[in-house]
Amino acid sequence: MGEAATRPSGTAERRRVGAGSQRWPGASLHEDRPGGPAPQDPPPLADSTTLEDGTRVLSIRIRAGRKPFDEQHTVTAPDGESRIFETSGETQTIRDGNTGEVLSQTTFTPTGLVAEPIAQLALAPTLPLIAAPVIATFELALQLLTYLSARKDGYGTVLGMSAQEYQYEDVAQPDMPMWIGRLNQAQLDATCPKAGEVQTIVDDVAARVKAQGSYASGAVLGTRIHAEIARTINSQKDPNFVAELILGERNDNESFIIPGSRRADIFENRPPLTACVYDTKTGREGLTLARVAVLIREAHKLYPDIERFIFIQVRPRR
User: Among the three residues 136, 160, 184, which one is the final residue of a domain in this structure?
Assistant: First the structure.
């Protein structure tokens, strides 16, 4: 998997999962129902979407009745690597989409991510996580974050992760509990109180800048919007609410790819250990591993004690 854009390619479809429907990997709707589903249970809804790079997202949501989970997303890369993100309440289980093996189980709270013990691994020796499985999980989690954030009901979608040290290129990776999903308004307010304000600023600035006239390109428009977002936020002079205006996109040699371009990264400090990181978007691209590493480094420069990161993609809604 690489740096390809992750916007849907227009091949999304919605269906009800019932008799005769295709069963997605890991979508066992009967596993906690010895007698099968109750007749009055409404059928779950399923969405199937293929992203531009060929990654496929299969989503199942169960609206009511007895259920083993609230929603389940199976994300499969073009190379066949697959992860299942299964959420029940505030707890999310991540499985290998090919073997069904439970890789992690994490509960989201406004003050932290709690890694739950995994019964099937209890008897296994403790081994350091190697890079490949962790990076694959993280890449597919970022694809899911971008997909869910871009939906009409995507407001409040977050990726939470805990890592005292994020070492993307090291062989051994730290155990990084992560959770991807949509928070309700109360949860979002308790976790990242500035989220609503950030969305309002992005909406207002984008509308105002677009109304000021035509621009030579989308990149020029985006640069103007990012610069104005940063100016608006930093005018508050709040050290716990900061926008870093980055000059240009850099390549591996630290040379600018787009000289003169700008983007605004927004950071909300939530002492003692949490930073809410708002990734503002004027285009349709998604987050990448390299981009996450940059955001974490920027957050640590501002708030050195941070251990938990809540990533939120913010796009203009009008």
Answer: 160
Greatest pairwise CA separation for the chain in angstroms: 64
Whole domain around residue 281: which residue ranges? 192-314
Instruction: Check if the beta carbon of residue 228 is closer than 8 Å to that of residue 209.
Output: yes
Measured CA distances, 306 to 5, 6, 114, 276 (Å): 29, 28, 16, 10
- Residue 171 within any structural domain of the chain: no
Contact status, residue 43 vs residue 29, Cβ threshold 8 Å: no
pTM: 0.77
> What is the tally of structural domains in the chain?
2
pLDDT along the chain (318 residues), means of 10: 46 39 34 45 74 92 74 96 95 94 91 75 38 81 92 90 57 64 92 96 94 81 90 96 74 44 85 93 80 88 92 89
281 lies in the same domain as 206: yes
